Amino acid sequence: MSTQKELPSWLNDAIIYNIYPQSFNDTNSDGIGDLKGITEKLEYIQSLGANCIWINPVFKSPFLDAGYDVSDYYQIAERYGDLEDFKQLISEAKKRGIRVLLDLVAGHTSWDHPWFKESCKGDDNPYSDYYIWTDARIQKKRFVNGIGERDGGYMYNFYVHQPALNYGYYNIDENSPWQISMDDPRALKVHQELRNVISFWMDFGIDGFRVDMAMSIIKNDPECIGIKKFWSRLRSWFNTEYPDGVLLSEWGNPARAIDVGFHVDFMHQFGTLGWWNLFRDQVDPGQDLDVGFFSRSGEGCIEDFLSVFLEHHAKTKEKGYICIPSANHDTNRPSIHRSGRDLRVIQAFLLTAPGVPLIYYGDEIGMRFYKGLKNKEGAYYRSSSRTPMQWDSTVNAGFSTADKNELYLPIDPQNDRPTVDSQDTDEDSLLNLVRKLTKIRQETPALENNGDIIPVYAKNKKIPFVYLRKNNDDQYAMVVLNPSMNNETITIETDKIDGKTILSEGVTLLQEDGHKWEIGVKPQSFGIFE
Ligand code: GLC
Ligand code: CA
């Protein structure tokens, strides 16, 4: 089992910025963001206080699922540039102390991948068993018949064009002789292919991967025993080869994912309900629906979030990190049904919480969740979170000089759409708040990623939420959050702070006698104290 000692130390102050490459910055006017565009904006990313970027897939692909359908793991998709551009990006990032994570689409390829094309052939060849094929036509969920020359159907992972790679089964159904064990030499060949891909990019100079659908690798393994075997083997190999490298899983169950070998796991839109308990959409007053903690109504349920978070935190501390993203390319943006001060309180939480923070591109300026877009490259509703970054007030918000109709997705058409340029010079902007908060995080020992969170005042449907952050050297900070429109005054007791204000927007802290503190919160306020 891994211990903190085996964790790369840079994770303890990592702040990730997640870039959706097609929507970030277009430098050749084809309407699609590219690698050069990312390189051009590294200084901006650095100005946010982020020291790591995760880029969604940039590999060769037919783009039926926006690149999560890889047809060559070793090539950069033409629309993003080439290996030279990527080399440039990494070296420029290194100069600025920014680490680079790529997206490892481990579980499946595109049906355009040469491995799959070979695998479809009727005659036996080295790729016949690279995918999961039945030995006859089959009526079963997640299986597709009628493609290729073989007498059988193949299993897919997400969309039908994403055939599942054959890493093997944990439990083999005796009536399905086509299933092979995860330790079968045929499966081990595929395991090796994955290591080759990892090595290629790590040797190229990246710092690790976000691992797509990490729990999907081994089939028929409800207890995750085979999956644990798979990832822990991979992790020990990875630790030896790349001791400073990091694997961040898309799992949504940190206790499990970190136990099987990941350094970091998301608490996000599926799996545990942690993220959902924070961000569940704001509902209109009067509607009888549970709301997430970040609600103007004051009806948010912080205990629901904490019960999940604290359990996972206790199980993963010293072994890995939880990452609560502001959003990602699959979720709503936090700005859905929210604006202005709502987003400030959200950032105040995300950037003071334990674990590795992650800012999804555009959330630092409050980009909107642009509803009603068409399905683009398999995105469906997810298009709304994937619109082009809004840099300034020039044509196409500075994203691209292509014709408006050529853009990957349309730009938020509203006149008052937020931009980097307009917020950059405004001291009170969300952008500058994010910068302040990341700086505070880096400068306040109590806010280290591997520290604890200790609730001081945390009650469902009550505000504020007050917690202490503590690092392993027993240094403390206290954070007060009020996402609601209500005023409140409460009294708490703690001897862990002196009452010095690090940053406050609408929170007052008055020392009563001894260790008693009176906390007054204005609507939608937050404060950080020492
Ligand atoms: C992950 C990705 C998502 C993709 C799916 C299939 O959930 O985040 O965007 O569609 O896997 O690879
Ligand atoms: Ca481009």
Pick out its properties:
single chain; 530 residues; alpha/beta; TIM Barrel; Immunoglobulin-like; 6-stranded antiparallel beta sheet; 12 helices; 18 strands; 24% helix; binds alpha-D-glucopyranose; binds calcium ion
> Helices and strands, in N-to-C order?
EHHEEEHEHEEHEHEHEHHEHEHHEEEEEE
Described by the principal axes of the CA atoms, the overall outline is globular
Q: Based on helices, strands and strand pairing, what is the structural class? A: alpha/beta
Model regions low in confidence, pLDDT < 50 over at least 5 residues: none
Helical stretch count?
12
Provide the β-strand percentage band.
15-25%
Small-molecule components bound: alpha-D-glucopyranose, calcium ion
CATH topology of the domain at 10-105 and 252-443: TIM Barrel
Cα gyration radius (Å) = 24 Å
End-to-end span in angstroms?
Answer: 35 Å
Summarize the structure.
With 530 residues, the protein is an alpha/beta fold. The chain has helices spanning 35-40, 42-47, 83-95, 114-119, 185-204, 225-241, 254-260, 274-279, 302-316, 340-350, 420-424, 430-443; strands at residues 16-19, 52-55, 59-60, 72-76, 99-104, 143-144, 154-155, 208-211, 246-249, 264-266, 321-323, 358-360, 452-457, 465-470, 476-482, 488-493, 501-511, 516-529.
How do the strands and helices of this protein lay out in sequence?
Layout: E1 16-19, H1 35-40, H2 42-47, E2 52-55, E3 59-60, E4 72-76, H3 83-95, E5 99-104, H4 114-119, E6 143-144, E7 154-155, H5 185-204, E8 208-211, H6 225-241, E9 246-249, H7 254-260, E10 264-266, H8 274-279, H9 302-316, E11 321-323, H10 340-350, E12 358-360, H11 420-424, H12 430-443, E13 452-457, E14 465-470, E15 476-482, E16 488-493, E17 501-511, E18 516-529
Parallel strand pairs: 1-2, 1-12, 2-5, 5-8, 8-9, 9-10, 10-11
Antiparallel strand pairs: 3-4, 6-7, 13-14, 14-15, 15-18, 16-18, 17-18
Helix pairs in contact: 7-9, 10-12
The protein binds alpha-D-glucopyranose and calcium ion.
The site of calcium ion (CA) has 6 residues, from loops.
